[in-house]
Design goal:
- With about 280 residues, the protein is α+β, with helices and mostly antiparallel strands.
- It folds into two domains: about 1-140, no CATH class; about 150-285, no CATH class.
- The chain is built from seven helices and twelve strands.
- The strands form three sheets. Strands 3, 4, 9, 10, 11 and 12 form a six-stranded mixed β-sheet that branches. The chain has a four-stranded antiparallel β-sheet with strand order 5-6-7-8.
- Helix 2 runs antiparallel to helix 3 (about 45-60), helix 2 packs across helix 4 (about 65-85) and helix 4 packs antiparallel against helix 5.
Length: about 280
C-alpha cells in the first residue's frame, strides 16, 4: 500500500527527494525482510553494510535523490509546456491563455527548483532567470501563480461497490483491478494491459493495439450529471451511475468505478481528476 500511495503522488506531481527516499527505504526494508526469510545463517552485518551502500547511492552519483528528482521535475515541466504548445525545441513560447491548474503547476515546479536546488538546473530556462512576476510574464506569459485552495474544492467520490460485493463476470473473459496496473504493464495469456497516467487503459496483443480508452472524459461527464461541482464532500454514486461500458471491433470493457478524487475549479468550472479506482470486466471478441 505504501508503494501504491507513493506511486499515485509521483504520477501526479513527479519525483522529489522525499518520495525518492520513501521508495528506496521501502525497497531496502523489503529486501532485508526477504534476506532474513530465506537465509538460514542470520548475519546482522548485512543491515549496516547494505544501509551504508543505499545511503551512498542515494546521496552521490547519477542515481542520487537530487539528480533523479531534478530529472523528474524537468520532465514534468516540459510535459506541461508541450501540452499547452509552449515549447518549441528548447525555447519557451509565452502564452497567457492556458488552464489555471497548469499555471499553478509550472509556478510550483519553478519554486521547487528555486528553494531546493537552483533555477539554473531547469533545462528550458536561460541563465540568469529569477522567479519574479516580471520574468514570469516575459518568459511564460503569466505571473507567478499560487495554488488557491479557497477557490478550488477537493472532492472524493466513492460508489456502492465495495470489496465485499459480488460482481457478475460470467459474460467476460478477464477481471482486472486498476490498482494492479499502477506498477506497470500486466501480461495474461497473449495480452498486455496497462493504465497510463492513471486514466488511459489499453490492451495490446504483440505489437497490435486492440483497445485504448481515456476514462477522464467519461468520469467528468458522470460528475457533471451528478452535479457534484464544488461540494468538496465525500459523495456516493449508485452502481448505475458508476458503470461505463465501451467497446470496439476487438474488445468490450465494462468499467465499474469504485472511487475518484480530484479538484473542482469553481472559477473556471473545470474538473481535474487525480486518481481513478475501478474494476474492469473485459471480453475479447
Amino acid at each position: 500500500m505504501m508503494f501504491i500511495a507513493i506511486g499515485i503522488r509521483i504520477n501526479a506531481y513527479g519525483l522529489t527527494e522525499n518520495r525518492y527516499y520513501g521508495i528506496v527505504m521501502g525497497l531496502w526494508v523489503t529486501g532485508i525482510m526477504i534476506y532474513f526469510i530465506f537465509n538460514r545463517k542470520l548475519g546482522n552485518i548485512i543491515i549496516p553494510v547494505s544501509l551504508a551502500i543505499v545511503a551512498l547511492i542515494s546521496v552521490f552519483g547519477p542515481l542520487s535523490s537530487f539528480t533523479v528528482a531534478k530529472f523528474s521535475q524537468n520532465n514534468r515541466l516540459e510535459s506541461i509546456l508541450e501540452r499547452n504548445g509552449m515549447l518549441q525545441g528548447n525555447e519557451i513560447i509565452a502564452k497567457s491563455d492556458i488552464p489555471t491548474e497548469d499555471k499553478e503547476e509550472i509556478s510550483m515546479i519553478l519554486r521547487y527548483f528555486d528553494t531546493n536546488h537552483s533555477l539554473e538546473d531547469v533545462r528550458v530556462l536561460n541563465e540568469g532567470f529569477m522567479l519574479t512576476d516580471t520574468n514570469m510574464k516575459a518568459v511564460f506569459g503569466f505571473p507567478f501563480t499560487e495554488k488557491n485552495l479557497t477557490d478550488r474544492d477537493y472532492f472524493y467520490v466513492s460508489t456502492e461497490y465495495g470489496l465485499a460485493n459480488v460482481v457478475d463476470v460470467k459474460e467476460y473473459d478477464y477481471f482486472v483491478n486498476s490498482n494492479a496496473l499502477l506498477g506497470g504493464e500486466r501480461e495474461i495469456d497473449n495480452l498486455t494491459m496497462s493504465l497510463r497516467d492513471n486514466s488511459i487503459f489499453s490492451i495490446t496483443q504483440g505489437d497490435v493495439l486492440l483497445y485504448e480508452k481515456d476514462l477522464k472524459d467519461d468520469i467528468i461527464n458522470i460528475l457533471e450529471d451528478y452535479e457534484l461541482g464544488g461540494k468538496g464532500l465525500q459523495n456516493m454514486l449508485s452502481p448505475e451511475e458508476a458503470t461505463i461500458i465501451d467497446e470496439n471491433d476487438n474488445v468490450q470493457v465494462k468499467y465499474i468505478i469504485t472511487g475518484v478524487n480530484g479538484r473542482y475549479d469553481q472559477i473556471n468550472g473545470q474538473y481535474f481528476i487525480y486518481n481513478i479506482e475501478c474494476v474492469m470486466l473485459i471480453n475479447i471478441k
